[in-house]
Specification:
Chains C, D: This is L-arabinose ABC transporter permease AraH. The complex is a heterotetramer, with one copy of chain A, one copy of chain B and two copies of chain C. By secondary structure, chain A is α/β, with parallel strands linked by helices. Chain A has 17 helices and 22 strands. Chain A is 33% helix and 26% strand. Chain A is globular and about 70 Å long. The chains are: A alpha/beta, B alpha/beta, C mainly alpha. The structure holds adenosine-5'-triphosphate (2 copies), alpha-L-arabinopyranose and magnesium ion (2 copies). The site of one adenosine-5'-triphosphate has 19 residues of chain A, from helix 5 and helix 9.
């Protein structure tokens, strides 16, 4: 019997019809996949379900009952819990406080501090997430924060749980924990709506699937069995993509980037590596392995304790990212929300922010050139937007990521490109476009460092992989020797500590 | 024991109070006592200033209060701290508005000063032979300050008594008590009555009247058609008189900070050291100073 | 050595620095550490201290209130005028609290419900309320008829004047509210991440309205005590209070960006402001130099705190 | 109909609403729309208008400057005192600009390099600089020796007084800087997301220092013009200017949270403040009621703008 039903849901924003007459239903106890290109309307549908945004038209039925909620609170009381695509945690509060936010255990308004911590502690233990409930969220890594978000859904007995790209900042290890949680919830009879761009996960977890395209229902599969990857991809993007990786051998040149004994306050063991012209070096590791930290030290985003970075033999001063950019190195950061997008500014401005210095004589802008640049990358990366003047905050998550990529791909004279989680939240169609751009840049002599938590991606596009584990280099593998099992083994700390999520000070 | 007296004033940045303090210091130097100078812009600050004086072992203090209605509170505070109390400039009143006659006071009557201003204006209008009906008056006002109201009302009463038509008096409310605010307010009045040829201006102090004079200049009214009379007689007024050409700033009523600062301090000292209680009430008056005679007037008042 | 470092760099570091400064001042400034002066000092910060309690919540939830000075003056006037008119002090006090709470409530409604910028809204109410106070009193202070009203400020309990007690009680009370109640945590959450709080089901609009109403109520208390201390209702009282209170809070580590606040910090901030004033007067520092010194003290206080926390290796 | 809606709800909606209000006022307030009154009105907003230009950058980059009023007074004093001392007006003007820029630069260094909260820092310099102005002049107004100095404010070009021209030129100049230069875009980017801007190669520290220094310089210009208008250097001038300027900016749509600013909005904000004052005086509204009316106008202006933009369906 249909437990969750969407009926003729429509939702528009100025210039965009985010959802147009979407109807489908999900059976009780099912995990239902929701797929679609960036900007297809997945998050919007989930926001409507969560009571955060009101639909322009249409209705939602749970267990045959029409829902009329005006707020998130109403939805919560109807048994709906949503984990949003962007992390929704209060950095200054503790893990326990975040988990209880909106429904603190209290008598007469006074919080029972013990209950607060203890219930969370036992719950986290039960579900296998090793995070200190009394730690401030600002001290956790993104991955750990994501796990806390997920714990939110599990803490409460919900009838409907929606997860919007929960694994985009998790590595496979943590994803496994999530998957087992989903199995448990499913066994309890909850309906789970699962948004992801990763087909593997969809096939592994989901019982049924809906594909959205341009805000419309493109396909509905009440049974996922029997459908193929190719079929879903073409339903999503409207065309066939044969080989998303598309890797070809390239000639490697001189040594381009040399990093020697890099270390910093949060990366105590010195790290050294080097990349040649034309080479794509992948960094793989579990959450907290230290890859992002390494990238920030390399770029001068954080102060180094020691270590040197050379590009084409010339030393890069660590005093500021500006120095790195001037030396020809750029970093596309991991956390798009805090380190990537400039809120309140247009797509155009977000793209041109760094590269405009090449075509702004005496600091005076060249609006034509900026517009052309924006249009070029909007088209190449398939950014779904009504206009290049759109405020970046109004874009869907994946489209924001594309714009940030566009910012760095549009830079001129780049010798070293460092990309941290390049395709986080990006749809399959755009992914292969991005890979093609990377190959093209590499073929032009650039040295590229790709940090990714997605093993297939690292293996699919790298010429060589450095595996990091607990802040050290655990392995350095050349493409001919790529092997899933040995890379994973190298990434694992040791049996006992497996699955441990490290705390780290992010404090941004 | 060493004599230590407090001197609390309501607007420490005003030149007037700077002068009072300076003359109090002069008395202190002559007699060998200490003056503790504290600025207290509101009732709460006065309270803590008195506590502070008590704590540092002063025996008495002189105060120019931010508001005369603070009277009972100041008296109580002084008693609690066993401090002798005198007031200067503004006289304390009780809840029902009657002066607290027990507290020795030296001061000027705001209304009287205003009247002096009004008289100076009336005299000059007559001297210049203007017809009062053709003259506009700018009342640069700052009504939230009671003293300011009393002063301008004093001036207005004399003007009216001399036959100045009430409907020719225009209000220019200052948003703050500085020259720029007066200038902006007066400009509006001048522009609203663009047909009026002759203007007179009065207000709370020199700064207010200066604003009106500047406004008349900026809209192109010749200096000879303007009579502004200020109150105070400190630098801002003197600077006007020093200008090579006469401006619309005709004169200022100088009040003497010397008596107020020097004599009150001396009286308080005598009271503490020799048990000689000061007069309950000493009223001083203002003297009109013009471009031609300001130096002499200042000398007569003991200031230069 | 290490434990010293820990104390200095810990959460309570500002308090420790402050304590050290206090000891130094006590040793070197004559008449500072006497019971009389301490009580005088505490009385001088009663208004700032009381209003800072709720301003802390306001800032913690990423809001801003410029109208506090006007509300203090207005409710002080209300207390006096209503007491005089009805002949009953309790009725007057109630009227004052009501006036304060109503203005605060209106602030809250306009800001939270109509989503008008808090700075502009409270700048507007600051002027409107000041105007109303001036109109009601015709710009003149209003004296208190019944001398019993003065007793509010003059009465003492265990040698300490009542206003100081009230301030201390409010410190304890709001410290508790901030750290141990749903209200406090929600306020911090709203400031830390309004969107996340909303999505977690916190009623952000109601919370903000409540905080402003509470701020108004507390300004009412401060207004009553002030009127009683200065034995009159003064329409011009407490001008510029907003900046002092906000400074005290920020000095005490409350973040203008929301989400961070601690009662202990705010108390220290309030005391620093009070001590600076007190010591300058004890040392008979000239009025114009007082400006400079006051500015320097502010700078040094935040600079020290900053050195401390950056030595602790925290970022941003 | 539709195009009307578009105009009202577009980026320039505030300007349109303002224009409508202007027409109404012109029709119903006698003496308002006369050349004399218009020039008087514009002159009355010269100080606010000039300082608002750079305050816009300051707010856009998520900073805050409370010291502007003091800098205006201080540099006005400097202009007069140095002119008098050297007998050369140009030297005096240079000294004023230098003084302003130096104070601004110090603000910037302390805030951006030592990472001290901007509110506290500028609150401190506000007091320090005011103190210095008072000390330098012994608290007295300083008269101008050379009458040529007055000509700065009195001289006219095409019937419009020089200060107004200077303000207009600065409007155009800073409008250009904001929209058409890397500097302007970087300021907005810093306000939108400082960390992201830093990682994108914007030298955030330098930018902030520059903005404060520029603010100081521009306050120097305002100080010179003010001294010339009131024909003396007054240490007490321009108190409270900071709040008026910030209000004008916020009224004009500049976001205190950074990242949003438009010169046209700021100009409208400045004019609204000036017109409110002007019209109240023209209509002879009583002083105490002026407070209330001023507050209401502020509220209505933001409320209208808010209705407009929420009708346009933008998100906060
Ligand atoms: N507040 C808004 N204002 C304007 N447009 C919006 C707003 N929110 C979403 N949109 C638009 O609605 C469309 C659907 O967005 P949505 O976030 O639902 O996409 P999505 O399928 O979740 O994409 P992604 O995979 O990138 O997360 C997009 O074109 C987006 O730009
Ligand atoms: N405040 C801290 N104190 C000590 N160690 C820290 C602190 N913050 C982070 N670390 C450690 O530094 C390393 C940095 O993790 P980093 O974020 O660089 O990892 P990553 O491999 O990129 O993983 P992620 O996918 O979470 O970004 C981790 O080992 C973490 O435990
Ligand atoms: O306030 C005034 C002051 O400005 C000075 O003029 C002396 O008298 C006081 O009442
Ligand atoms: Mg999405
Ligand atoms: Mg990482």
């Amino acid at each position: 019997m249909a437990f969750l039903e969407f009926k003729h849901i429509s939702k528009g924003y100025p210039g965009v019809q985010a959802l147009a007459d979407v109807s489908f239903s999900v059976e009780k106890g099912a995990v239902h996949g929701l797929m679609g290109e960036n900007g297809a309307g997945k998050s919007t549908l989930i926001r409507v379900l969560s009571g955060d945004q009101a639909a322009d038209a249409g209705s939602i039925l749970i267990d045959g009952e029409e829902q009329r909620y005006g707020s998130v609170r109403d939805a919560f009381h109807a048994g709906v819990i949503v984990i949003h695509q962007e992390l929704q945690l209060v950095p200054e509060l503790t893990v326990a406080e975040n988990l209880w936010l909106g429904r603190f255990p209290a008598k007469g308004g006074v919080i029972n501090g013990k209950t607060l911590i203890e219930t969370v502690r036992s719950k986290l233990e039960e579900i296998g997430i090793d995070v200190d409930p009394s730690a401030k969220v600002s001290s956790l890594s993104i991955g750990a924060r994501q796990m806390v978000e997920i714990a939110k859904a599990v803490m409460l007995d919900a009838r409907v749980i929606a997860l919007d790209e929960p694994t985009s900042s998790l590595s496979s290890r943590e994803s496994e924990i999530l998957f087992s949680l989903i199995e448990k919830l499913k066994a309890k009879g909850a309906v789970i709506l699962y948004v992801s761009h990763r087909l593997d996960e969809i096939f592994r977890l989901c019982d049924s699937l809906t594909v959205l395209r341009d805000g419309k229902l493109a396909a509905h599969h009440p049974e996922i069995a029997g459908t193929t990857r190719e079929q879903i991809i073409s339903e999503m993007v409207g065309r066939e993509i044969s080989d998303i990786w598309g890797w070809r051998a390239r000639p490697l040149g001189e040594m381009r980037l040399e990093a020697k004994d890099l270390s910093g306050p949060r990366l105590r063991n010195p790290i050294s590596f080097s990349v040649r012209r034309g080479e794509i070096l992948g960094f793989f590791g579990l959450i907290g392995a230290g890859r992002s930290e390494m990238a920030r030290l390399l770029y001068g985003a954080d102060a180094r304790d020691q270590g040197q970075v050379r590009i084409d033999g010339a030393a890069v001063l660590p005093d500021d990212p500006k120095a790195a950019i001037d030396a020809g190195m750029v970093l596309c950061p991991e956390d798009r929300k805090s380190d990537g997008i400039v809120q309140g500014r247009s797509i155009e401005e977000n793209i041109a922010i760094s590269s405009r210095r090449h075509f702004s004589p005496f600091g005076i802008l060249n609006p034509k050139k900026e517009a052309a640049l924006a249009d070029e990358f909007i088209a190449r990366l398939r950014v779904r937007t009504p206009s290049r003047k759109q405020d970046i905050i109004n874009l869907s998550g994946g489209n924001q990521q594309k714009v940030i990529l566009g910012r760095w791909l549009s830079e001129q004279g780049v010798k070293v490109l460092v990309i941290d989680e390049p395709t986080r939240g990006i749809d399959v169609g755009a992914k292969s476009e991005i890979y093609d751009i990377l190959y093209e840049l590499a073929a032009g002599g650039m040295a590229i460092v790709v940090i990714s938590s997605e093993l297939p991606e690292v293996m699919g596009i790298s010429d060589r992989i450095v595996v990091m584990c607990q802040g050290r280099v655990a392995a350095d593998v050349a493409r001919p020797n790529f092997d899933e099992r040995s890379i994973l083994t190298a990434a694992l700390p040791d049996k006992n500590a497996a699955g441990t999520i490290q705390h780290q000070e992010h404090g941004r | 024991a060493d004599v230590k007296i407090g001197f609390i004033v309501k607007q420490p940045e005003e030149p007037w109070f700077q002068d009072e303090w300076k003359f109090a210091d002069q008395a202190a130097k002559e007699k060998g006592f200490t003056v503790v100078k504290i600025g207290a812009e509101d009732g709460e600050k006065v309270q803590s200033a008195i506590d502070n004086l008590g704590a540092q072992g002063a025996q008495g203090f002189i105060v120019c209060t931010p508001d005369v209605k603070l009277g009972p509170g100041i008296v109580a505070k002084a008693e609690a701290n066993q401090l002798k109390l005198m007031t200067v400039d503004d006289r304390l009143v009780s809840a029902d508005g009657k002066p607290l006659e027990d507290v020795p006071h030296m001061g000027i009557s705001a209304t009287k000063i205003g009247e002096t201003v009004g008289q100076a204006i009336v005299d000059e209008i007559k001297k210049r032979g203007w017809d009062m009906k053709t003259v506009g008056a700018i009342r640069v006002s700052y009504d939230q300050l009671p003293t300011a109201v009393d002063r301008v009302e004093g001036a207005i009463s004399v003007l009216k008594a001399a036959g100045f038509p009430a409907e020719n008096i225009y209000d220019a409310p200052q948003a703050k008590t500085d020259t720029e605010a007066a200038l902006n307010a007066a400009t509006t009045v001048l522009n609203k009555h663009a047909d009026v040829k002759y203007w007179v201006a009065f207000g709370l102090n020199d700064e207010a009247v200066l604003g009106a004079v500047r406004a008349s200049e900026s809209v192109g009214i010749p200096a000879a058609n303007v009579i502004g009379v200020g109150i105070g007689g400190a630098e801002s007024a003197i600077n006007e008189f020093k200008k090579p050409a006469a401006t619309g700033f005709f004169g200022t009523v100088i009040i003497s900070p010397k008596r107020h600062g020097y004599e009150t301090a001396l009286n308080m000292y005598d009271w503490i050291a020799n048990g000689k209680e000061p007069e309950k009430l000493t009223l001083t008056s203002g003297s009109l100073a013009l471009r031609g005679d300001y130096e002499k007037v200042r000398k007569d008042l003991g200031i230069e | 050595m290490n434990s010293l470092k820990k104390i200095l760099l810990g959460e309570q570091g500002l308090v420790v620095i402050f304590a050290a400064a206090f000891v130094i001042v006590s040793l070197f400034v004559p008449n500072f550490l006497t019971e009389r002066n301490m009580l005088g000092l505490l009385q001088s910060v009663v208004t700032i201290g009381i209003v800072a309690c709720t301003m802390m919540f306001c800032l913690a939830s990423r809001d801003f209130d410029l109208s506090v000075g006007s509300i203090v003056a207005f409710s002080g006037m209300a207390a006096v005028m209503v007491s005089n008119a009805t002949g009953s002090i309790p009725v007057g006090l109630l009227a004052a609290l009501l006036c304060g709470a109503i203005v605060g409530f209106v602030n809250g409604i306009v800001i939270a419900r109509f989503r008008i910028n808090a700075l502009i809204t409270t700048l507007a109410t600051m002027q409107i309320v000041r105007g109303l106070a001036l109109i009601a009193s015709d710009g003149r202070a209003v004296g208190i008829n019944d001398p019993a009203f003065y007793q509010l400020a003059l009465s003492r309990f265990v040698t300490v004047p009542t206003p100081i007690w009230i301030m201390l009680i409010l410190f304890v009370f709001f410290g508790f509210v901030l750290n141990r109640t749903v209200f406090g945590k929600n306020a911090l959450a709203i400031g830390g991440n309004p969107e996340a709080s909303r999505l977690a089901g916190v009623n952000v609009v109601n919370m903000r309205v409540w905080i402003f109403a509470l701020q108004g109520l507390v300004c009412g208390i401060a207004g009553i005590l002030l009127a009683s201390r200065i034995t009159s209702g003064q329409p011009n009282a407490a001008t510029g209070l907003e900046l002092s209170v906000i400074s005290a809070c920020v000095l005490g580590g409350v973040s203008l960006a929301g989400g961070r606040a601690a009662m202990s910090g705010v108390i220290v901030g309030v005391l620093i402001m009070g001590i600076a004033e007190n010591v300058m007067n004890l040392l008979n520092i000239q009025a114009f130099y007082q400006y400079v010194v006051r500015g320097l003290i502010l700078l040094i206080a935040v600079l020290l705190d900053n050195l401390r926390s950056s030595a602790a290796g925290r970022r941003g």
